[in-house]
């Protein structure tokens, strides 16, 4: 059963009413077709009003939806001949990061992303999509391999953040993230990142130093969660809704600030409503990005990345 988000309750109630009338019409000798048509028109209008005017906190909830598609879901729909590669060649394999070689529209690419679980058992295996250092080192190994063989890199970001546990810190969590930032900045192949869910803190940025950064319409990208920001600013995590509005963490806000390049449209209600359609929207954006970036020389790709991040945060008084 798909979880119903609070702002969707009026839609669900109206859909339930329509289904009840259809069942009643089928079982009783009463024609309710005019009322059904009227309610369906009202439902369409209501869906448009709600989904076109979502508040930041609504988008946060959609980004966290347990049924939201994961990196693996999109790999299966966007790519063919995916070969997953494992391990960082230093410590072990981190299931919170998946990556490998695949064909995208007939061209070889390297694709890497955070991977959440789809149930409790898998979430424990994948550490709820929060990587350890070996996960980021695996990602970097695959990126350097892609550079060697001149394959474009596509990264999918979907994590609350890097794992903050003792073992991760002992194995060099901050160094692993910092190393990714440095090395990604100098890669001589096109790098494209897409935020597909939550993009949290340095754990997200470790896959985010790209020539093009895209975001799904209902994803978020921030240095801290709304709850964390509310706890720091107001000592009250329950004020997360206000924090989400103040932080400007949604795709439309980040596009206005020119931190990201493209807001990828989502199907009404979120990507989990129709994964196949969502993958098609993403495919169009990825194709356009690759066409644009493959025109650039290796030096121009590095310069493009440098200018992009140098300009972030500029302001005029």
TrEMBL record:
GO terms for molecular function: acetyl-CoA carboxylase activity; ATP binding; carboxyl- or carbamoyltransferase activity. Coiled coil: none annotated. It comes from the Bacteria. This is Acetyl-coenzyme A carboxylase carboxyl transferase subunit alpha. Residues 29-292 form the CoA carboxyltransferase C-terminal domain. Keywords: ATP-binding, Cytoplasm, Fatty acid biosynthesis, Fatty acid metabolism, Lipid biosynthesis, Lipid metabolism, Nucleotide-binding, Transferase. Pathway: Lipid metabolism; malonyl-CoA biosynthesis; malonyl-CoA from acetyl-CoA: step 1/1. One of its GO terms (biological process) is malonyl-CoA biosynthetic process. Component of the acetyl coenzyme A carboxylase (ACC) complex. First, biotin carboxylase catalyzes the carboxylation of biotin on its carrier protein (BCCP) and then the CO(2) group is transferred by the carboxyltransferase to acetyl-CoA to form malonyl-CoA. Its EC number is 2.1.3.15. It is an enzyme of class 2 (transferase). PANTHER family: ACETYL-COENZYME A CARBOXYLASE CARBOXYL TRANSFERASE SUBUNIT ALPHA, ACETYL-COENZYME A CARBOXYLASE CARBOXYL TRANSFERASE SUBUNIT ALPHA, CHLOROPLASTIC. InterPro entries: Acetyl_CoA_COase_a_su, ClpP/crotonase-like_dom_sf, COA_CT_C. GO terms for cellular component: acetyl-CoA carboxylase complex. It catalyses: N(6)-carboxybiotinyl-L-lysyl-[protein] + acetyl-CoA = N(6)-biotinyl-L-lysyl-[protein] + malonyl-CoA. It comes from Psychrobacillus psychrotolerans. The keyword Metal-binding does not apply. Acetyl-CoA carboxylase is a heterohexamer composed of biotin carboxyl carrier protein (AccB), biotin carboxylase (AccC) and two subunits each of ACCase subunit alpha (AccA) and ACCase subunit beta (AccD). HAMAP family: AcetylCoA_CT_alpha.
């Amino acid at each position: 059963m798909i979880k119903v988000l609070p702002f969707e309750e009026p839609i669900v109630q109206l859909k339930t009413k329509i289904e009840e009338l259809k069942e009643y019409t089928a079982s009783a000798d009463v024609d309710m077709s005019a009322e059904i048509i009227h309610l369906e028109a009202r439902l369409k209008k209501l869906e448009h009003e709600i989904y076109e005017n979502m508040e930041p906190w609504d988008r946060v909830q959609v980004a966290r939806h347990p049924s939201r598609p994961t990196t693996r879901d999109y790999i299966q729909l966007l790519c063919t001949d995916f070969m997953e590669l494992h391990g960082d060649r230093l410590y072990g394999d981190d299931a919170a990061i998946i990556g490998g070689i695949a064909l995208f529209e007939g061209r070889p690419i390297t694709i890497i992303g955070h991977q959440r679980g789809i149930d409790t058992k898998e979430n424990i295996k994948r550490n709820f999509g929060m990587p350890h250092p070996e996960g980021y080192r695996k990602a970097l190994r695959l990126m350097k391999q892609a550079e060697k063989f001149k394959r474009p890199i596509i990264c999918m970001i979907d994590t609350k953040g890097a794992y903050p546990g003792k073992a991760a810190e002992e194995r060099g969590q901050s160094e692993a993230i910092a190393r990714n930032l440095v090395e990604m900045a100098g890669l001589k192949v096109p790098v494209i990142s897409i935020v597909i869910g939550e993009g949290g803190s340095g754990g997200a940025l470790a896959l985010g130093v790209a020539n093009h950064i895209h975001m799904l319409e209902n994803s978020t990208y921030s240095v801290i969660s709304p709850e964390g920001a509310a706890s720091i600013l107001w000592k009250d995590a329950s004020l997360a809704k206000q924090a989400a509005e103040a932080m400007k963490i949604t795709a439309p806000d980040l596009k206005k600030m020119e931190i990201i390049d493209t807001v990828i449209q989502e199907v009404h209600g979120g990507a989990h409503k129709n994964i196949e359609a969502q993958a098609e929207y993403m495919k169009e954006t990825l194709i356009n990005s690759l066409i644009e970036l493959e025109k650039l020389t290796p030096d121009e790709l590095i310069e493009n990345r440098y200018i992009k991040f140098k300009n972030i945060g500029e302001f005029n008084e």
